[in-house]
Write a structure and sequence with these properties.
mainly beta, 11 strands
Length: 123
């Protein structure tokens, strides 16, 4: 049974940093990707970043490129999202998700989703 559990969300001031973690459990695919998505109230889900667990290739959404860094610890099966230079518009619920094979930032490619962690950027 596949399970993804996010943690690390919270309240942060503009310009601050947070590190989110995604604990990935039960994946048996030989190659898979873990993506981060976010959703603000009243808005569509937005792709933030993805890391392909096989070759460590990464992709970022345009709004976070240069500020966020995705990484993974294959031994612990944990994927991290380091978020720096946070802005008001980064506020939302952040979800991690798993897709078989390589993937990019299309939510439809992801079969398993976590329940999300709230990130609020406010002064």
């Amino acid at each position: 049974q596949v399970e993804l559990v996010e943690s690390g969300g919270g309240l942060v001031q503009p310009g601050g940093s947070l590190r989110l973690s995604c604990d990935v459990r039960g994946v048996t695919w030989p190659y898979y990707a873990v993506g981060w998505f976010r959703q603000a109230p009243g808005q569509d889900r937005e792709g933030v970043s993805v890391i392909n667990m096989n070759d460590r290739s990464t992709f970022y959404g345009g709004s976070v490129k240069g500020r966020f860094i995705v990484s993974r610890d294959n031994v612990k099966s944990v994927v991290y999202l380091q978020m720096n230079g946070l802005k008001f518009e980064d506020t939302g619920i952040y979800y991690c998700a798993a897709a078989a094979g390589d993937a990019v930032l299309a939510a439809r490619e992801y079969a398993y989703w976590g329940h999300g962690t709230q990130v609020t950027v406010s002064s």
